[in-house]
Amino acid sequence: MHHIFKKGASKEEIEQLNKELFQIGNKKPLDAQKYCGIIKLDEDPMVIQKSLRNEWR
Q1: Do the domain assignments include residue 51?
Q2: Quick check: is 25 in a domain?
Q3: In degrees rounded to 5, what are phi and psi of residue 5?
């Protein structure tokens, strides 16, 4: 999301945009630990990564 502060904006407009920005940032952080071990892979992750990177060659 982008917020544009225009030149000559009033103090009230700037305060309103700041409030909107701070409301967006109050979400809970991502808990990545709950996703650990969810995906079961058949081959080594490095082999998968190398094959994906070489697919354009």
Answers
A1: yes
A2: no
A3: -95, 110
